Amino acid sequence: MGELLRRFWIPVLLSKELPEADGEPKKIVVLGEELLAFRDSRSVVGVIDQYCPHRGANLWLGRNEECGIRCVYHGWKFDTDGRCVDMPTSYPDLNAKDLIRIKSYPVREWGEMIWAYMGPADVMPELPDLEMAMLPASHRYVSKKWQDCNWVQALEGSIDTAHFTFAHLSFDKEENEILDIKKHFVNPIARMSSDHMRWIAEDPRPVIKIAPHDAGLCIAGGRLTGSDNIYWRIAQFLMPFHAYAPSAMPGENIFGQTFVPVTDTNCWIYTYAWNPERPLTQAERDAYDRGNGVIAEVDDHYVPLRHKGNDYMIDRKLQRTRSYTGIKGVSEQDAAVQDSQGPIADRNPRASRPDRSRHHAFPQARDGSGARASAGRAAAAGRTPGSLRGALRRLRHQQGQGPARGDAGTFWRCRGLRRPSQGRSSGVALGPIAQHHRRIGRVDPAVVACPCRARTCRCRANNDEAAGVTGQMPDAEIPDRRGCRAHPGLLWRAERAQ
Description:
Blueprint: H1 2-5, E1 9-14, E2 26-30, E3 33-39, E4 45-49, E5 63-64, E6 69-70, E7 77-78, E8 84-86, E9 104-105, E10 107-110, E11 113-117, E12 140-147, H2 151-158, H3 164-167, H4 181-184, H5 194-202, E13 207-213, E14 216-224, E15 229-238, E16 242-244, E17 254-263, E18 266-274, H6 282-289, H7 316-321, H8 330-340, H9 357-367, H10 374-380, H11 389-393, E19 398-403, H12 408-414, H13 432-440, E20 447-449, E21 455-457, H14 463-471, H15 488-497
Antiparallel strand pairs: 1-11, 2-3, 3-4, 4-9, 5-6, 6-7, 7-8, 10-11, 12-18, 13-14, 14-15, 15-16, 15-19, 16-17, 17-18, 20-21
Helix pairs in contact: 2-8
């Protein structure tokens, strides 16, 4: 797994943790390696070995001056590329300093985070095209938090949409009352519709649908709404350690997380919120400082105020009357249950669970054995994974309503969305309509489908070829010009959404 992660750019610090040139260096541990990060006189960030090769003194004690970090033991000085640029203990004419170099990694600043690439230099990929990093700084908020468990179990929790019914449930009742969701439910998250929260609370058994794509997995959870619609919440797992929470309606702020292993038993979780349509307000930023959604309330060292060491400040009276966990904060509630699984969760296959589909799919994509997890397979084979730039740019989590007779794909189509890999994956057989659109050069095909699987081309371009495509379809699936005979209203809504 470590070799796989090294084939990707890894966040190692927030940019604001190195606020000034020639400022204080920072000790960091990534993938078990003890490293040192510093910003030199040019404001260039370096990530190098933490220890001087001369006598093993810790360079964190050193002086950050004149484009290098100088060891305070014998004065050896190293630049951001790990080169020894001064060796005052050696005679100048010997050029001994030119023979000395310490470990260093390529560094980039992107999205208010400092990224390092720790893999082979000859296969270094491009930075990931995370949407939040491509926006102006005014449109995003970036933080991080420490967590005392293996990074995988934390990531698994972030893409699990089923636990929201319990772990994040809020209600209002007396201590001696029996909890009745329909009677006592309250909405704890102001930005989410009360109906959406109620549907989550009242249906603890979401239908889980998983769609692999070029950059990872889409994980959709569908819940009953008491009508003909299904409420879908769609999360994204993005190779190798990014996740988007299933919490945004159109126009709302979007939340994401990046899970970076420190050792096998703890990790840093980089958390961010962004809005592609407008700058974040000061009120929103203040709310994130106090903890909101996946963003925890943290101290100056980015350790959550409610953490394992203080039992997450659990309030048992609150647990009986207001909160299912008695713990304040969605992020802290997640951390409490994930940490409680142990430093490395036991995944004993004998502990059978009825909801294992997403837990099987994630390791497959993570390890490169899942369908179309091309990046994982390439890295595992010693090749460079794809940059994922195009794939990541198209991805976003979603929530909303779709027809009860459909599946998560139907919801995406009715929202005017496109599966991330539609018409884009190499080595994947395309259907006749997708092939038709590729031939006529249509980038975003307006192909719609309904629960009965009827399909039609609505591009109104090259009608002769479109007619030929329709002729290739089984008679039972040939729709009329308005779309599916059985569900014309559904197709009309899908077309309007586009």
